[in-house]
Amino acid sequence: MKVPGMLSRRGGAYFVTCVVLFSTLGASGGRTIPDDNCAAIRDALKEIGELKPGDSRAQLERSFELDGGLQVSADSRYAFKKCQYIKVDVEFSKQSISNGTAPILPTDKIVKISRLYLENPVYD
Questions:
Q1: Residue 55 sits in which domain range?
Q2: Residue 7 located in a structural domain
Q3: What sign has the CA pseudo-torsion 75, 106, 111, 8?
Q4: 63-72, 79-88, 93-102, 106-115: which has the minimum mean pLDDT?
Q5: Is the N or C terminus of the chain more exposed, i.e. has fewer CB atoms within 10 Å?
Q6: Is there a domain that residue 52 lies in?
Q7: Number of domains in the chain
């Protein structure tokens, strides 16, 4: 239920973010953080924002690549190509193959995409 004058959860999060951002700018004497530090995060948010359920694995793999470690075709962890610390979990539609395993195909369809998160790169 929306009450006039109250912020929604999402609106509240944006409000808090703005307050923190402006208070940080004030504490730094008006100096801003160099844009280079945020470029990869901004780019990853833009790229993931353009993806939606129904898009193909090939579309995801323009900007993201499979992270290291054990991966299965239906549930995969991807790392942003420009910064391997930025990750996203993606669920793909399951294919039925007679031997019980499904190959990873560029035509696999995205079912669900997680929010971006930070994690150390995984190496095999």
A1: 40-118
A2: no
A3: positive
A4: 93-102
A5: N
A6: yes
A7: 1
